[in-house]
Write the structure tokens for this entry.
Amino acid sequence: MSNYAGRTKTSVGTYVGQEGPVKTDNPIPTPKAEAPDVLRCASMELVVTDLEKSRQFYVDVLDLVVTEEDENTVYLRSMEEFIHHNLILRKGDTAAVAAFSYRVRAPEDLDKAVAFYTELGCRVERNKDGFVKGVGDSVRVEDPLGFPYEFFYEVDHVERLAWRYDLYSPGALVRLDHFNQVTPDVPRAARYMQDLGFRVTEDIQDENGTVYAAWMRRKPTVHDTAMTGGDGPRMHHVAFATHEKHNILAICDKLGSLRMSDAIERGPGRHGVSNAFYLYLRDPDGHRVEIYTQDYYTGDPDNPVVTWDVHDNQRRDWWGTPVVPSWYTDASLVLDLDGNVKEVVARTDDSEMAVTIGADGFSYTRAEEGEDSMPEYKKGEYKLGNQL
Amino acid sequence: MSNYAGRTKTSVGTYVGQEGPVKTDNPIPTPKAEAPDVLRCASMELVVTDLEKSRQFYVDVLDLVVTEEDENTVYLRSMEEFIHHNLILRKGDTAAVAAFSYRVRAPEDLDKAVAFYTELGCRVERNKDGFVKGVGDSVRVEDPLGFPYEFFYEVDHVERLAWRYDLYSPGALVRLDHFNQVTPDVPRAARYMQDLGFRVTEDIQDENGTVYAAWMRRKPTVHDTAMTGGDGPRMHHVAFATHEKHNILAICDKLGSLRMSDAIERGPGRHGVSNAFYLYLRDPDGHRVEIYTQDYYTGDPDNPVVTWDVHDNQRRDWWGTPVVPSWYTDASLVLDLDGNVKEVVARTDDSEMAVTIGADGFSYTRAEEGEDSMPEYKKGEYKLGNQL
Amino acid sequence: MSNYAGRTKTSVGTYVGQEGPVKTDNPIPTPKAEAPDVLRCASMELVVTDLEKSRQFYVDVLDLVVTEEDENTVYLRSMEEFIHHNLILRKGDTAAVAAFSYRVRAPEDLDKAVAFYTELGCRVERNKDGFVKGVGDSVRVEDPLGFPYEFFYEVDHVERLAWRYDLYSPGALVRLDHFNQVTPDVPRAARYMQDLGFRVTEDIQDENGTVYAAWMRRKPTVHDTAMTGGDGPRMHHVAFATHEKHNILAICDKLGSLRMSDAIERGPGRHGVSNAFYLYLRDPDGHRVEIYTQDYYTGDPDNPVVTWDVHDNQRRDWWGTPVVPSWYTDASLVLDLDGNVKEVVARTDDSEMAVTIGADGFSYTRAEEGEDSMPEYKKGEYKLGNQL
Amino acid sequence: MSNYAGRTKTSVGTYVGQEGPVKTDNPIPTPKAEAPDVLRCASMELVVTDLEKSRQFYVDVLDLVVTEEDENTVYLRSMEEFIHHNLILRKGDTAAVAAFSYRVRAPEDLDKAVAFYTELGCRVERNKDGFVKGVGDSVRVEDPLGFPYEFFYEVDHVERLAWRYDLYSPGALVRLDHFNQVTPDVPRAARYMQDLGFRVTEDIQDENGTVYAAWMRRKPTVHDTAMTGGDGPRMHHVAFATHEKHNILAICDKLGSLRMSDAIERGPGRHGVSNAFYLYLRDPDGHRVEIYTQDYYTGDPDNPVVTWDVHDNQRRDWWGTPVVPSWYTDASLVLDLDGNVKEVVARTDDSEMAVTIGADGFSYTRAEEGEDSMPEYKKGEYKLGNQL
């Protein structure tokens, strides 16, 4: 992550180069302790205010599989998952995220997690019996960015339902794909995530080197989590994968039939960043869920990092479809380890919305033509002017 | 086409009933002459101002097949077509539509067309050698609504390339599906089209019986043409079909790669009306092209007519995606038989845009909740207020 | 339908030409009475020996919609249908077909059907109240080929579930597409169907003019029924359409999950004839059901008739996948109007199986290379030799 | 890999358990030297006898991208690849495989590869300039099973064409997915691959513990290579991935249009093992190429190993489609480091073909019903009897 210097311009207008240490004026110190070996994003714990309504959304509409449930909690998984859950719905008074949970490679990585975050001065809790059902020995921390991160290795195995096509719905969700977090200072966040062993795959910058978002991975996809610049700590979205694009369209069709089309916030569309096909939904509490398919393999150590110009109108949607303002502004609160809402700190860097569709911002379809290459017929949407 | 009286409400909130004579205060008299037996919409002749640029759009981007071409004209067809062409690009000074061309069942139907339109007092021209290459004996008229309609039977056969998968691109267009025309008085237009032998399949009305649009067919699909209320006569769009939904997504993807995403005006999405999957593009002259797939069989004489409430936010897009204002306001001019632009007459009935997203209009996702069921995060788009 | 004389060879090796009267040495006399105006194949009545098992197959596995049922009968329809049913399962002792049911354009067409078949000397029954639930005034005949044909216009309307995506399964069947009948003398059968108003769209012949099969339509698809040469009268299959190819694959996947993969007889694959994507299943009684998608528009009167060489190995499967022998040999019995099984008469013309994969038969992938162009690795399957 | 003891039977009839050391009577000694850290299968070098014909197959038909070529060699890559090539076609007298090439994590891994294979007593060659264009420092070995393995880290980067949808064909190949090798003793081979750091994901066994095939991975998919029991060392196939299933169908359609359907050996179908959708082609030299899509994530260390019963007819094809005998018997020769063909050693364990479809073998669709649950209509294919 850096500005465009030393980068190669591709035939589609992006810049590729090799990952280096992220430049930041305000770094979180790199711990001497070794980072835990994170395998993948594994689960999110969501606090929901109306459990029945949320269950209906995730189970009856999105067809996630119930592994286990009681009156306060529903444990859900995707069709190809073999661990106990990928999503927990827990009843509570305030809609928020209680944990971003990562699986680590071995039990010993929990000790590393404790050491790593303790050295960072973070609050660290360890529970040999797990904080939730289905999971054993676990570590929860309030990380330097204010997010409740969980790490675990021990977990109950359940049947991987990949071959149970009699249970698939037209929009079947097959994997948890990634998290997306909102944080005020993206380079600071990305640098810390590098220390935690994550690799940057793509980012969005401007010509001054301001970084608006960065995508980072452990498993060899485009991301296990992304850092989106904004007031934070907040959770931007949690994403599940389908096999094919028509599965995502089927979810939209079904929402229409259920007269729940207002749950569709943005998309479906093709991302520029990640090259994946996407859809953003809002659950009954407003938690944002992405449905996502077909990004690319990123597992080589020299995997080219792709940098997108913030003014490139195809960065967020390859087809140039406008991003709705709420997608930039709304996000879910997160909880500290006592279950209290973390205070949100404002972003001071430029906002992506302001520099692209705000009164003084601009975007282009073709860089050489500048803002003149924005579609006339979408101008209202592309130029918010004084509206916001 | 009528208001909701005598209609059955369906489980998805539409109304179905049987087609009757369209009620209009200002009917075009029904000719005593028998109408020609129209088979299907067959071709559109477009005047384009930069032939090379338009050829690039339709041939290099959309992969239509060139049957024949010269320096002023390009004759194009879709992959499954066996007649000479479905689209003609003709070089001219003013972008416009020169002909909406229908194929009739037999040579005798041309005599019927002459008698039908002569009785209507229309200008009628017949050319035994055809007005364009590939087509023989033809009749062109300026119809009562001001549109240049063509009727023909004789046509050169060319190879149907349906089995030439080596020539298919990811977004292959396989059939011309329909036209869409803008006209100020929809019931007047629909009643005349019924006289011409067309059947209504769906329409959009409000509770006062104002009709905003009507879909009409000869072949047993949802339409061969539709009448959209607005200032006219103008051409709203011409539509080509693909086999599957992913073909339409592939066209978007390709436009992104070519940095032509500004050609995408609306969609892709799922229509409420017609239940088809759709995309709207604008060609280099602004002519609107729809890509369309998967409507339903309508060939039974008692095929239920579906009426949509104009305030139902899922009527135009089943997923509730806002319709961009340009889609309501922009359309192509049409030519008279001398090649002069037809004067455009303003609509006096309510405009769909005004009653749905205008300052005093409203839309809903769930009828019983009214406007409160419109997604908060799309409000800017859904409520244009004083913007327009 | 004729031999190749006067036909044009296409770039993919088929022959196209115009439909003429079918040549036959043994014609059924053309009635002077006008034929009824058939709209489309509308329903099949199947006798099944274990109603519960059959219901499970068509409802739980194939997800057809139950319109109505009682202890002896289940009335089923597809997702886009608005008439009462497309398939009737009726409990009985012998698995057979009780009716191939066509919808006609108007009530008067029933009088025409009576006159047409009476003149042909056929047994004709009319029931003002219908022979089955949901259908009114109907005519049933034992047609000249021995098949139980039904004609009706009056029918109960039910909700077209096209927009009910919450009810769609991954393999949703959206339309009844066609029937396929086995009869010993194909030209004789096809000529009679022409008299009934059907048009030939494709056929399979050899260089001697022997006709192995013919496809015929009323609605503008490749067929409402096809005549397949073999011992008859028997029912070869009934076909339902899906929207897309992946829907057909989903049915296979589901059958695998239910450990019912033995219900898959042939396919999935791409037909040469019709260009459609297909799958053949066998229901619990062995009745063959095709799942079918994406043939082409055939509604023009001069629609080119496609003739395939019986030795062209891509005629039945465009990918050259061998046809399993049972597909050639097995078919369902049909009933007369008293419910007795019709006697089966042997075909005397060459059998398609014998001339293509039998001991003395041959097939080719490339005509100019002859049998040498058959894949070595499939030889066992392609050359049955003395096996059968 | 073991027999079913200690394994859990799943709801679809497979057995899952944890990977353990593979039991073998005839192990290759585990080296004390550390194994190189293999990232992924990266490229195969194929010797082809008619370069022009092979180029036509891989470039014009399969649409792989030419990175570089000269009169003797063509370097090809898939749409999402950023390294120089995934497939090399090299002109030669004998069709064979010259290298199975793996990318390693770091330059130091080449030293480890040298030590590892030297300790195993294998012939090892290192070339600082690479053995082929685009690749730097490389190690080639004749491995203990007789296969020519290559390891490299240094490689030229080329543009990842993932976003170049203008270059995608309907059947676009996006990634190299895996190799498949034929070797007489599968447990011996699998044990050695475990030593090389590979993990077993699935296997096929019988009730006696005979192992017929095993799938092994480094990247977290079902495999980077598989070991198939048979006369070896030979190369069974090399596999490329598409995004979706329809892409694979499009390849079949295109081969039909080119009158090259004889290149289709088996499929398309759904694998039981891997759950992927597949197609097997044979190139002009008979080298087998699989097209493959949608297996599942396997990256957790306790990823459940799936064991299939060799008699389960859905193991190789979930839909029960018979495997053609050539698929079991044919494979490509491999070369030693001097370019000479490696001698092929016969398998002495039971052959999968013999125990499943041979005279004394058997398969089932439903275990509890045994061979009676095999489809009657496919019996000819399922029971080869004395034919082979």
In short: Chain B touches chain C through 38 residues (CB under 8 Å). The helical segments of chain B are 51-61, 108-119, 186-195, 245-257, 325-329, 352-357, 379-382. The two ends of chain B are 30 Å apart (CA to CA).
